[in-house]
Amino acid sequence: MNPTVALLLAQDGIATGAIYALLAMALVLVFAVTRIPFIPIGEFVVYTALTLIAIQANQVPRTVWLLIIVGCVAFIADVAAFIRERERAPGGGTAPLWFSAAQNLLLPAAIAAIAMLLSQKPRIMPLDMLMAVLIVVPLAPMIYRLAYQPLVSANPLVLFMVSIAVHFVMIGLGLNLFGPDGDRAEPYADWQLELGGQIVRGQVVMVLAATAALTVILYVFFARTVPGKALRAVAVNRVGAQLVGIGTAASGKLALTLAALIAALCGLLISPGVTLNYLSGELIGLKGFVAAVLGGFVSYPLAVVGAFIVSLLESYTSFWASALKEVIVFSLIVPILLLRTFLSRPDMGEH
User: Fold this and answer.
1) Are strands 192-195 and 198-201 parallel, antiparallel or unpaired?
2) Which of 157, 189, 256, 313 could be stapled to 144 by a disulfide with Cβ–Cβ 3.0 to 4.6 Å?
């Protein structure tokens, strides 16, 4: 390996690491607030990318109909919960039901109408990207309502099993929505930069710039806004947050929505450079999961460091031992889990 090849591999590793870092931060966010290991995050990456590809082909994405169906099921679940609550305490208001109708029925219908209207218009890249995000991200609070909210008090192992089930359901739905073939979006940037004799692709610059901007936005959100501070409070002390009037169900929905938004933006960033199909989200999400594990699922900076370790290791092992790169990357989990086990049980070292 000569220095030129090493720099090219480092460039790819850094660009990929930025994507894994965003996914790792999203996973840490969801776990801190809800104790949910959000395994299906990779599917939100792929759904957004493939939805964008369908929009660019002047089609109405099938994810629009998925959004409408899941919204109807979520609304039915809310109606059933409302009826049970009225039986226990007659005379309650209907405000939650109206809010559910707006979120689960009116919003998907409006998005579907806009998607059908835009399919007849000339393509505008920023508008196509926004539309893909608007179609996919609202699925997150609906999934939280149907899969996780009924088990909000369950232990993390149960939530992990539910996440795996949601992951496989979304893979099966992805096959029906997008088909088995892979595709990639139209490129956003065809320019290049020359830095110190090294060519840097415009797509890489866009990924790094978007990652930096999103990191700053997340910092401001958690440090300066009321919803961000509420999420931090739930992460620190769930019971205490409930006692001061912070709704944990609403916090869970918001956390999953933010994670889905981050994943959707990752899908937009990688869609022009990588051929994706309905199965691609599995590996993407698991590598973000490995990065989050390296950060202990508690530290955003450590998760970012873990993401770049994973991406650089993947990049260089793809050159030296491409057939084993996935094995090597996922093997990182074993020593980290062993180390955390010994650190959490000091007496184990005495036996």
Assistant:
1) antiparallel
2) 256
What angle (nearest 5°) sits at the alpha carbon of residue 19, between those of residues 119 and 207? Answer: 70
| Cα–Cα distance, 139 to 44 (Å, whole number) | 9
List the end-to-end C-alpha distance of the chain, in Å, as a whole number.
Answer: 45
Contact call for residues 58 and 123 (beta carbons, < 8 A): yes
50: Cβ contacts below 8 Å, ≥ 6 apart:
61, 63, 174, 177, 178, 183, 276, 277, 278
Q: Which ranges in the chain belong to alpha helices (H)?
A: 3-34, 41-56, 63-88, 95-101, 107-118, 125-136, 139-143, 156-178, 202-224, 226-236, 238-243, 248-270, 280-294, 300-320, 325-330, 333-344
Report residue 237 as tokens.
């002390």
Q: How far is CA 346 from CA 295, 336, 341, in A?
A: 20, 16, 9
The Cα–Cα gap between 49 and 133 comes to: 9
Q: Is 47 exposed, middle or buried (0-12, 13-18, 19+ CB in 10 A)?
A: buried
pLDDT for res 351: 44
Please check whether residue 200 is in contact with residue 193, taking contact to mean a CB–CB distance below 8 angstroms. Answer: yes
What's the burial of 60, exposed, middle or buried (CB within 10 Å: 0-12/13-18/19+)? middle
pTM of the predicted model, to two decimals?
Answer: 0.90
Q: In DSSP terms, which residues pair with 201 in a beta bridge?
A: 192
Give the Cα separation of 310 and 295 in Å (integer).
12
